[in-house]
User: What shape does this take?
Amino acid sequence: EYGSRSELLPEIAGVVRYRLAPGFSPHDLPVEQSAMPLLQRLRTATSSLQDLCEWTVRGPERVSRLLNALYLQAGLMVLRVSPGARR
Assistant: This one.
């Protein structure tokens, strides 16, 4: 029900950074081949939604949908960041 939302799920929204969970294989997900570079970035770097949107040609809605799907499949680590923390 929530995976197709164009905005982030409330559980993973806010001042956070994302990373692919260790041991998670994105190849088990039905994602487009064009999403693979984004998944590789999440495997090697911790990124915010804004970072991911700036890094890829995918729009915020598509990046949000991908993050939602990863979260619902237990493939996403969500790191809470203090609002005053530097980038």
